[in-house]
Amino acid sequence: MRIVIAGAGAIGGYIGARLARASADVVLFARGPHLQAMQTRGLRVTSADGDFEVRPQVTGDLATIGTVDVVFLGVKAHGLTALAPTLRPLFGPDTVVVSTQNGIPWWYFQSHSGEFDGLRLERVDPGGVIAAAIEPRRVVGSLAYFATDVAEPGVIHHTEGNRISFGEPDGSKSERAKAIADALIAAGFRCPVTARFRHEIWVKLLGNVAFNPISALTGGTLEELARHPETSRVVRELMMETEAVAGRLGIEMPITIEQRMAGAEKVGAHKTSMLQDFEAGRPMELEAVVGAVVELGDRLGVPMPATRAVYACAKLLDEKRVGVTQDSKLKTQTLTAHERQ
Q1: Are 183 and 3 in contact (CB under 8 A)?
Q2: What's the predicted TM-score (pTM) here?
């Protein structure tokens, strides 16, 4: 099985590193300093389970790889609009594309038996660019349950967890999903294949919709958000509203809000991916995780006052930060121009 990790950041890089250590045929695609560091020194993983280093095949040009069996989409959801149209050189007749993004995936309402079959969420797939680039038949969903971050270019820190679940959009337990799971099991992951993957998406969303934006707004870790009396009440409000949207779609949560809170507290002093992105100056994965649920709430007539308020604040925070970054770049360019004169 020939595998490409299209986006070897915190999640994709960790998957790629474990696959490379297990001698899998894997290529990591990255850009910038992270790519340069991996090309020069390899990829290092630091973890309480044991540190290790690998020298995987890495590239900054997807067109040089050729066709592969499996493509893991390792970029954040907002990066898929740019990435998806560039994937075509990787596709053979049976190439599988594995989504790993948080939030509601672009394919969620493809092969959907409900009244919303074929629905496209603008906040997830603006203009339908992703769906046009990746045929529905190629898609297998996945959810990663481990905490990782890019500590520095070429170094990924693993905090805890080793589970990745897989599911077909049509609910079947296919041989191709099992084959992908087997490859990752050989690399040391736990990889259940579930027929209720959409349910599992909402279980993860139940926490992400609340914890991720609130962590970015407050700087709080999962442990702090779950334990703080006032903040934890806001977290529960967002969870209740999210649960109501899921219920309108026919999703019965197999876990209670209190169980989700306890699970987050157990993870400890971990920063959510959204907080990590904010602190690193990267765009936050806000639309697929929170905006899409608000969009669904509007379509389904489900009131979401608490979620809408947190979403609006996080969106302004993200826009102001991006605006500051752009202003800084313009000032730098202006100064450079003056220096040249």
Answers
A1: yes
A2: 0.88
Does the annotation mark 204 as catalytic?
A: yes
Catalytic residue among 76, 178, 204, 329: 204
Helix axes 257-267, 197-218, angle to 10 degrees: 60
Q: Cα–chain-centroid distance for residue 133?
A: 19
Residue 212 to residues 98, 121, 314, Cα–Cα distance (Å): 23, 20, 10
Strand partners, 143: 165
Looking at CATH, the fold of the domain delimited by 199-324 is given as N-(1-d-carboxylethyl)-l-norvaline Dehydrogenase; domain 2 (1.10.1040)
The string of DSSP letters for 18-52 reads: HHHHTT-EEEEE--HHHHHHHHHH-EEEEETT--E
> What residue spans in the chain does CATH classification 1.10.1040.10 cover?
199-324
Instruction: Give me the tens of pLDDT residue by residue for the chain, a chain 341 residues long.
Output: 999 999 999 999 999 999 999 999 999 999 999 999 999 999 999 998 999 999 999 999 999 999 999 999 999 999 999 999 999 999 999 999 999 998 999 999 987 777 888 889 999 999 999 999 999 999 999 999 998 889 999 999 998 899 999 999 988 999 999 999 999 999 999 999 999 999 999 999 999 999 999 999 999 999 999 999 999 999 999 999 999 999 999 999 989 999 999 999 988 888 888 998 899 888 899 999 999 999 999 999 999 999 999 999 999 999 987 665 544 444 444 444 443 34
Q: Which CATH class, in words, describes the domain spanning 2-195? A: alpha beta
